[in-house]
Amino acid sequence: MTPSSVYITGIGSYSPGNPVPFECIEDVLGRLEGVPKKLEKRLERLRSVLREMLGIEYSYYAYDPQTGTFTDTNVSMCEKAARKALDQAHLAARDVELIVYAGILYDVMCPPSSVLVQEALGIPYCAELSIHSNCTAIYKALQVAADLLAGGRYRNALIVTSQMSSAFLRAEYFNPKMVSLEQVILRWFLSDGAGAWVLSRHPGPHVSLRVTETYLESVGLGIQPSMRMMAGALHANLVEVYEKGLHHLEQDIKMVSELAPKLFKQGFDTMREKTGLNMKDVTCFFANIPTKHMMDLLVNGLRRDFQLPDLPFYTKMATRGYPGAPAIVIALDEYLQEKPVLSGDRLVSFVTESSKWMHAGFILDAC
Description:
- This protein is about 35% helix and about 25% strand.
- By secondary structure, it is α/β, with parallel strands linked by helices.
- The strands form 4 sheets. Strands 7-6-8-9-1-10-16-15-13-14 form a 10-stranded mixed β-sheet, sandwiched between helices. The chain has a two-stranded antiparallel ribbon with strand order 2-3.
- Helix 3 (about 75-90) packs across helix 4 (about 115-120) and helix 8 (about 255-275) packs parallel to helix 9.
- The two termini are about 25 Å apart.
């Protein structure tokens, strides 16, 4: 059987609540009290430079600091993004044949988020999958769903992704005696959000982006995880988890700074080699990178390496914060609203996930 073409025919994104200015982030998440004095002194010095280093102007959170309650869940954010994508694709929710949920944080451990999204959308019957990963999750979902449609198993698919960073960034979540600088810095650039793509074997009425290539690789053999949260089956004593701070999300910023540029370049070179991508054909590159400092480093490197000083880049990090996997869907959604996409335009994205050093990318061609 000859594989069918697969198209993104609907895109929806959702950012909860009102935009929170960078200087007001601690007003929402709360100011950490009781941290070691040495750490507090370092934080006071950092607060004045973090905005420029991170490049964040606004963030969004599904959390109300006045009531101390969440205003959305991962599932409700997915539902809102999915309904936008389905409307754009002119597809009724009940006609969805496959749901793929992609993300790192779930509302509950069981049942899986995929079936909870199915319930929220009122879909009586469909196949479903859940993919557990961080930045690369949505790329993995795209490859899996596109391959299943191309092979003829399903006619359409709904990919949903979400992240509620605020759940583990609120001040009351932390054990202040066990917190580290790397864990605290994450509070200033991680945010909440969701995204959805509708995939079909036929072009869409409003959006038709052919999924020309997808790319995945894992290259972290022998390299320690650079982003992790150790609470889980191996550490299930909740009292011990809190006392040791094992529930804190942490990123080894020094290791990421050293490894990310090198591994990003190696990974993107491999993707280009395997897909035959010519950078001169790229209409826009979607930079899925969480900080301005790292983005500038990698963007300037690509422009220099390919002698394309005007290579267009696009990201919504400055006005959305970084919501992990949904970031690329939010960016693509906003890009299509801001710029006319012409037949033949080529949209490319590539990302490096530092949790255990995975790469992912895609090539979309406008029809």
